[in-house]
Write a structure and sequence with these properties.
Pathway: Glycolipid biosynthesis; glycosylphosphatidylinositol-anchor biosynthesis. The protein is mainly alpha-helical. The chain has one domain. It has 7 helices and 4 strands, in the order E-E-H-H-E-E-H-H-H-H-H. The strands form 2 sheets. The chain has a two-stranded antiparallel sheet. It has a two-stranded antiparallel sheet with strand order 2-3. The longest helix has 24 residues. It is globular, with a radius of gyration of 20 Å. The termini are far apart. The relative contact order is 0.17.
Length: 217
């Protein structure tokens, strides 16, 4: 007596995302790196180019009053929220779906970024930043970097903590910040060489590169 084999269906997965908040997309790219199941990636389109960072960097370098890092950071906050809502999140694909914007998670991600300033500041200090002398400026630099990473932080939380794909955005900000340190010891005596002005610009350039080129084709 022969028995019929049951057809093997597609493997199911558990997601913490609300199915009602999902909309279908097309097929997944063939060259998509796997960072767990279901995969998550950001489509590389003109939509993910952070035009606001280009404008903000130009304003900070050319027109800000004494390279005001504090004002630049406060201006960056709403820009990053709008960039996430209107550009980055619509290009983020989770499995074969696009997650709709989670307004509660926007606030949670903001709080997360503030909490991340502490380990970020410690990391900056370990790399040789002044601690006791310029603690407020070092914290402002850390806050600026964390705000730059806000879209990536939100996406990690919104895709069930799949850090694998989004770590490249954090790395690009850190590398840009680190490379810009080379401008500080130069014997030029320029006002923009003061701590942490070069690192703020470097972090912005790193974020521009990351959000523009680190997405998936």
């Amino acid at each position: 007596m022969t028995t019929k084999k049951r057809p093997v269906g597609k493997k199911k997965f558990v997601s913490f995302s609300d199915d009602d908040a999902l909309s279908r997309t097309g097929r997944l790219p063939k060259n998509l790196p796997q960072h767990g199941s279901p995969p998550v990636y950001v489509r590389r389109t003109w939509q993910t180019i952070p035009f606001h960072l280009i404008v903000l960097s130009y304003w900070f370098i050319k027109h800000s009053n004494g390279y005001d890092v504090r004002k630049c950071t406060w201006l960056l906050v709403p820009c990053q929220v709008l960039y996430l809502a209107l550009q980055f999140n619509p290009a983020t694909v989770y499995g074969n779906k696009i997650l709709k914007l989670n307004y509660a998670l926007l606030a949670v991600s903001g709080v997360t970024c503030i909490l991340l300033t502490i380990p970020c500041m410690l990391l900056v200090v370990l790399f040789g930043a002044p601690f006791l002398e310029m603690l407020d400026k070092t914290w402002l630099l850390s806050l600026h970097c964390c705000v730059l990473s806000y879209p990536a932080v939100y996406s990690v939380l919104n895709s069930d903590f799949k850090v694998g794909f989004f770590k490249k955005y954090f790395i690009s900000i850190a590398v840009g910040c680190w490379i810009s340190c080379l401008a500080i010891p130069l014997d030029w005596d320029r006002p923009w060489q003061e701590w942490p002005i070069p690192l703020v610009v470097g972090a912005q350039l790193g974020a521009m590169f990351g959000y523009t080129f680190c997405s998936q084709l």
